[in-house]
Amino acid sequence: MERTEVIARYRTIRARSEALAAPLSEEDCCVQSMPDASPSKWHLGHTTWFFETLVLEGHEPGYQAFEPVFRVLFNSYYNTVGDKHPRPRRGLLTRPPLAHIYAYRQQVDARILRLLENAPDEVLTLVDLGLHHEQQHQELFLTDLKHLFSCSPIYPGYRAPLPPAKTASPLAWIDFPGGLVDIGHAGKDFAYDNEGPRHRVWLEAYQLASRLVSNAEFAAFIAAGGYEDPLYWLSDGWNWRQSEGRAHPVYWHGDAATGWQEFTLGGLAALDPNRPVVHVSYYEADAYARWAGARLPNEAEWEAAARNFAVTGHFADRAVYHPEAASQDGLQQMYGDAWVWTASSYSPYPGFQAVAGPVGEYNGKFMVNQYVLRGGSCVTPENHIRASYRNFFPANATWQFSGIRLAR
Asked: Which of 107, 211, 277, 306 could tie 218 with a disulfide, CB 3.0–4.6 Å?
C-alpha cells in the first residue's frame, strides 16, 4: 500500500473509532457486561496500545512509553509482549479516566503520523495491519455495546429506532456445479495470515439458499417446538440449550402469543419478520438447518459462490447497525447484514505458517474449538471484508451479528 494511502486510512479509521464513542457517556464507556465483551474505553485504549507497542516501540527513534502501565492494562492476548490485565476484569478499570485515554490516542496518533512520513515498507505493512485490527474492534465496539445496553431494563437505544423493512423475497435455491476450486487469498492486497495459503478443494455439486433465514422463518422453527426436540440438536448444543435455558434468540423478548420483540441498537421494538435472524449460536443455526431439511454450508462452498460478487451490501458504513431484508431475486446478502455460520471448523489451511513475532499470535493460536463465519455483517466496515475473510467464534457465541444461510 502506498504511503499516502496508509496515512489517509490512518486518519479516517482512527477518527471513526472516536465518532462511534461520541454519543456515549463516560459511564457507558466503562462498564463490562460479560467476560467476552470489553468496555468501550478499553477498545479505545487497546487499539492505541497496538500502535504504540507493536509499531512505535520497535521503530520510533528515542521511543518513550506514554504510560508504562498501559503496556499491561491494554494488552489483550499477546503473551510474547508480557503480562496482561485479566480479560473478565476490564470493567474494573475506572482509572485511567476516559479523558486520559483520548490524550493517549492523540499523542500516539501524532507520533505514528510523524513516523509514517519516512517509514520503510515493513512499518507501512505493520500500520496497515493495525488499521484492520482497529476495524475489527470497531465491530466489537458495537456488538459489546449492544450487549451492555440489552442488560438495562430501560433498553436504551444507541441510534434512532429502525424503520420497517421491505418484504423479504421468497427463498429460492441456487445451483453450483462443484468441482475443483481454489480458495484462500490471492493477490497483493491486505489479508490476514489465516486466509492463506491459497489451495485447491474438491466440492460436490451443491445449492445455497438465495438469502439469509428471516425472523419469520426462525419464529416458525420455535413455534414447531424446535427448541424442545433434541433430534434437531447436536449433543453439545442440546446441553448448552438446557444449561442456558435458551428457547429463542438471545435478544428476542416475549413470545408468539403476545408478539415477539427484539432488542436492537435502536432500542426494543416489535420483531420485524422480514429482516434476517441474528445473534444465533452455531448450535441454533445447525438445529434450524436440520429442522428445515437442509444444512449449513462449508466455508469453501460459501467462498466459491461469493467470489463472483462485488463486496457490496448493508455494512456499518450505512450506520443502521441492523440487517436489512433481502427483497430482490437471485443470490443475495453474501456480504454484510449478518455473518453466516459455516460447518467448517476453524483450522489452518494446508501449509499455513504463523509469522514471526507478536503479530504471529493474531490468528493461528486460536485454531481450535471454533467455527468459521463468512461475509461480514451490518456492523463490519465495508472496506474491511473480502471473499477470503475468515471470522471465527466458539459454537456458543451469540453476541455477534451471526445469522444463517442454508445449503444442501
From this structure: 277
CB 391 within 8 A of CB 339: yes
Angstrom distance (rounded) from CA 351 to CA 193: 11
pTM for the whole thing?
A: 0.97
Cell of 344: 467448517
What count of other Cβ atoms lies within 10 Å of the Cβ of residue 407?
Answer: 21
* pLDDT one-digit tens code per residue, 375-395: 999 999 999 999 999 999 999
| Cell output for 193 | 495470515
Q: Hunting for cell 464513542 — which residue is that? A: 21
| Grid cell 482509572 in the structure block, residue | 95
Reference 294, options 217, 229, 240, 238; nearest CA is 217
pLDDT of residue 356: 80
Please give the DSSP secondary-structure letter assigned to residue 252: E
User: What phi-psi label fits residue 242: left (phi over 0), alpha (psi between -120 and 50 degrees) or beta?
Assistant: alpha
Percent of the chain beyond pLDDT 90?
95
Distance CA 181, CA 394 (A): 27
Spell out the residues 6+ positions from residue 154 whose beta carbon is closer than 8 angstroms to its own. Answer: none
Please, what's the b/e burial string for 122-150 (b: 16 or more CB within 10 A of its CB; e: otherwise)? ebbebbbbbbbbbbbbbbbbbbbbbbbbb
Q: Give strand pairing partners of 270.
A: 261
CA distance 238 to 158: 34
Nearest residue to 256 via CA among 243, 244, 270, 268:
270
Give per-residue pLDDT as tens, 324-359: 999 899 999 999 999 999 999 999 999 999 888 888
Q: What residue ranges define each of the domains in the chain, with the CATH number in brackets?
A: 3-150 (1.20.120), 173-403 (3.90.1580.10)
Q: Is the pLDDT of residue 285 over 90?
A: yes
Asked whether the beta carbons of 199 and 182 are under 8 A apart, the reply is yes
The residue whose grid cell reads 441454533 is 284
Q: How far is CA 22 from the centre of its chain?
A: 21
342: DSSP letter? E
Output the pLDDT for position 346. 97
Per the listing, cell 499523542 goes with: 107
Cell of 137: 474492534
Distance CA 111, CA 92 (A): 29
Would you call 198 helix, strand, or coil by DSSP?
Answer: coil
- Residue 375: which of 353, 364, 391, 361 has the closest Cα? 391
